Amino acid sequence: MQSNSKEKRILQFRLRQIQKRALEKGLQVRVLKRFNYICFVENKRSESLYLTLIITGGTIILLLLISFGIQYALSCRCLLPLNYLVWEVARPLADCSYCANVTKPIILWNVTRHSFKPYAYSSKPIIVKNSVTHWSAIKYFSYYMFKRLYEATSGSYESLEGCQFLNFKTDLFSLKEVFSMSNARVRNEPGEKPWYVGWGNCHSEILQKVRKYYSIPDFLPEDAEYPATENIFFGYEIGAVMHLDYIPRLMWQGQVRGRKNWIIAPVPECEHECQRIEYYVEPGDVVLLDTRLWYHSTSIPKGQFSITVQSEYG
Ligand SMILES: [Fe+2]
């Protein structure tokens, strides 16, 4: 680098000497200036081409790095907080008509598939009252029923693709830990830490047994797409903190036991024309919500034990 600039200085000195001698021998300044101008343009052109190549190459490398970074963040299950951040940044802006003038959930009674049709695929919050009171889950689902089932099934705790375990703010990090709690904590007795967890039920044998106690709500569209499994959520008090779901379809949730309080809020770009809403669901109700567009948090009233079956349709 240093030798290059030295050579350049020597070359410039020699050129100046040649130019001086040429002027002494009668070369017109105008011609020399023209010569200098041509040289200047040639250099400038090559410099500019060099600069363009560097900028283009750098931009391509930067875009590739960003693309690889996003793909890595989305595919890596252990980077959940980063996933949420990436998704939130990548989320398209919402059309606020989904929440404009919504001040409470739509409450429906005695719903059939036909009467539900106008509400199917709606992004407005809906409660279908007493629609799953016939589920035998309401009578049989309990902490101890699931504990017995998981303990009696070989491979039940093995991590299966899609079997997400959510501990919310609970200090339990696997189903095995959940089903190893002391009886006092299971019952949330005074002095015990409340707990609330959820998981995707995708062990085929367990799923087959558990599905005998509930069914997909019969008012949902026949031609809708449904996932291969359902999620179970149960516990006391805590519920889920305010969040959006990054799922491909609308959410439905059947309340099996206990009462669950919901707080829903519009996405930030719709806050100027939409409002936060609070409501609750009771055993036998189904709550429907576009959890991709409504921020939502849940909590269980003190002293109650909540169990829900949750899935998607779309
Ligand atoms: Fe959610």
Give the CATH class of the largest domain. Answer: Mainly Beta
Shape: elongated
- The strand order across the widest sheet is 1-2-9-6-11-5-4-3
Major beta sheet summary: 8 strands, mixed
Assess the beta-strand content as a share of residues.
15-25%
What bound compounds does this protein have?
fe (ii) ion
Give the structural class: alpha+beta
CATH topology (fold) name of the largest domain:
Jelly Rolls
**Number of β-strand runs:** 11
CATH H-level name of the largest domain... which superfamily? Cupin
Any idea what the CATH architecture of the largest domain is?
Sandwich
Query: Can you give the helix content as a percent range?
Result: 25-40%
Low-confidence stretches: 37-44, 72-81
Distance between the termini: 64 Å
Q: Quick check: average pLDDT?
A: 85
User: What's the SSE pattern?
Assistant: HHHEHEHHEHHEHEEEEEEE
Number of helices: 9
Describe how the helices and strands are arranged.
Blueprint: H1 2-24, H2 29-75, H3 80-90, E1 106-108, H4 113-116, E2 126-128, H5 137-140, H6 143-152, E3 165-166, H7 175-178, H8 183-186, E4 196-200, H9 204-210, E5 231-235, E6 250-257, E7 260-266, E8 277-281, E9 286-289, E10 294-299, E11 306-313
The chain binds fe (ii) ion.
